[in-house]
Amino acid sequence: MPAKTVRKKSAKKVVKKVAKKAIKKSTLYEVRRSRIQGRGGFAIKPIRKGQKVDEYVGEPISHDEADRRYDDNDGRHHTFLFVLDDDIVLDARYGGSDARFLNHSCDPNCETEIDNGHIWIKAIKSIQPETELTYDYRFEWQDNYEPEDIRYYACRCGTKKCRGTILMVPRYLKETARKWLAGDDVKKPRKPRKKTAVKKKSATSKKRRTAPRR
Ligand SMILES: C[S@@+](CC[C@H](N)C(=O)[O-])C[C@H]1O[C@@H](n2cnc3c(N)ncnc32)[C@H](O)[C@@H]1O
Ligand SMILES: [Zn+2]
Q1: Which of the chain's ends, N or C, has fewer CB atoms near its CB within 10 Å?
Q2: 131, 162: one domain
Q3: Catalytic residues
Q4: Ligand 1 pocket check: which of 78, 107, 134, 160 to mutate, most ligand atoms within 8 Å of Cβ?
């Protein structure tokens, strides 16, 4: 029906306008081939420490939708997802800015800052032109990860401080992770129990301690 067609067209125009507004190019860096992986962002002007370099924009989706879109079992880890909070993930494959091309480094020159629902890439050092812009992805460690998972998330930042993986490995697993990355699949140590806060001695706690055990 003609009326429907007209409505559809105008809706499309609105979407295009929003997307155009979101993808504003930063004048501070450009995307080129990177030694770390694929493409990356490189400074084309001196960048001051603390300066906002770009905003990470993309389609806001739920975590479930992100899992549906990207299968972790396809061989190599590669997505343009950024976790905004417990509910929302930004998928920069759709309507994303160049910030989606910034690679991870274990010794980065940028960091991300979430402010009022916006994700900003901010310089944490002064950066000279031609330098690759990086931030620490700090991917969350899952307790069920095995050696192949850590190798799946292997890091190629090449810095002296490289931890070998994009994942944030818990302290008690650091040595194990190092061995796994080297191909030595040693057994995973038990997760240490969380220390419970020491309670102040009180009449009630004394009573509890002396109560019979079942
Ligand atoms: C948001 S993309 C970054 C842009 C990517 N280089 C490209 O050309 O599309 C994130 C992906 O890049 C790769 N990547 C980024 N930093 C990396 C690093 N330090 N080591 C290995 N792979 C990295 C991983 O595959 C990661 O999932
Ligand atoms: Zn690294």
Answers
A1: C
A2: no
A3: 56, 137
A4: 78
